[in-house]
């Protein structure tokens, strides 16, 4: 339907231009000779009229395919493209469109890093602490394992430090006991190095 409307508009423009320049008999021939937009894929007969790059062209003789108007002796210019008009006003926003189909699944992502294996929870023996005495106590990982984290269970103590050992082979807790003494058990979460 758009092609028909577009063709009618083009014919009206051609007729308006030719009305001022040619007899009525030529208008009948134009309507029968108008071929729409020029296509490089087809030949044209002598007298065929096409639009190309905004201008109107007349085939002066039978014209083979790929002979472009404006760069070939086969075409005569009937009307040059006019100057571009001023931009029109912005139209109102159209209605919201329908929701589109779900897209295809994406490509599979790269494998993630290997997780920890061989994890274990190590508990130290209970350390009993005299009143107000300071302490440092730790839970050691098994050979070949590294500490991931840790903590402690305490009774009547103040823990000042709670940290991994310098070789990451144990969890250490340091602090002091209350006025009545205290006790502490340290635990370490370890995994394969």
Q: Could you explain how this protein is built, in words?
A:
This protein is mainly beta and 193 residues long. The protein contains 2 helices and 11 strands; from the N terminus they run ααβββββββββββ. The longest helix is centred in the N-terminal third of the chain and has 18 residues, at 2-19. The chain has 2 domains: 2-79, Seminal Fluid Protein  PDC-109 (Domain B) (Ribbon); 120-192. Mean pLDDT is 86; it is low at 1-5 and 23-28. The strands form 3 sheets. The chain has a 4-stranded mixed β-sheet with strand order 1-2-3-4. Strands 5, 6, 8 and 11 form a 4-stranded antiparallel β-sheet that branches. Strands 7-10-9 form a 3-stranded antiparallel β-sheet, with no helix packed on it. It is 15% helix and 36% strand. α1 (2-19) runs antiparallel to α2.
Output the keywords.
36% strand, 4-stranded antiparallel sheet, Seminal Fluid Protein  PDC-109 (Domain B), disordered N terminus, 193 residues, 15% helix, mainly beta
Low-confidence parts? 1-5, 23-28
List the total number of helices.
2
| Quaternary structure state of the chains depicted | single chain
Taken as a percent bin, the fraction of beta residues is 35-45%
Specify the overall morphology.
rod-shaped
List the helices and strands in order.
HHEEEEEEEEEEE
Strand order of the largest sheet: 1-2-3-4
Content-based structural category: mainly beta
- The CATH topology label of the largest domain is Seminal Fluid Protein  PDC-109 (Domain B)
Please give the share of residues in helix: 10-25%
Second rung of CATH, namely the architecture of the largest domain: Ribbon
Rg is 45 Å
CATH class of the largest domain reads Mainly Beta
Distance between the termini: 73 Å
Count of spatially separate domains? 2
């Amino acid at each position: 339907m758009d092609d028909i409307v577009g063709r009618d508009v083009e014919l009206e423009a051609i007729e308006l231009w030719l009305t001022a320049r040619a007899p009525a008999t030529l208008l009948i021939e134009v309507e029968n000779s108008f071929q729409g937009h020029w296509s490089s894929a087809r030949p044209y007969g002598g007298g065929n009229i096409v639009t190309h790059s905004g201008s109107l062209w007349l085939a002066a003789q039978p014209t083979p395919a790929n002979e472009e108007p404006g760069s070939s002796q086969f075409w005569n210019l009937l009307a040059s493209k006019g100057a571009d008009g001023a931009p029109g006003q912005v139209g109102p926003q159209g209605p919201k469109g329908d929701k589109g189909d779900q897209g295809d699944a994406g490509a599979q992502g790269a494998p993630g890093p290997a997780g920890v294996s061989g994890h274990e929870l190590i508990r130290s023996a209970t350390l009993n602490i005299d009143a107000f005495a300071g302490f440092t106590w730790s839970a050691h990982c098994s050979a070949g394992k590294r500490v991931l984290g840790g903590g402690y269970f305490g009774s009547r103590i103040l823990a000042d430090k709670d940290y991994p050992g310098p070789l990451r082979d144990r969890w250490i807790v340091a602090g002091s006991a209350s006025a009545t003494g205290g006790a502490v058990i340290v635990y370490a979460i370890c995994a394969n190095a």
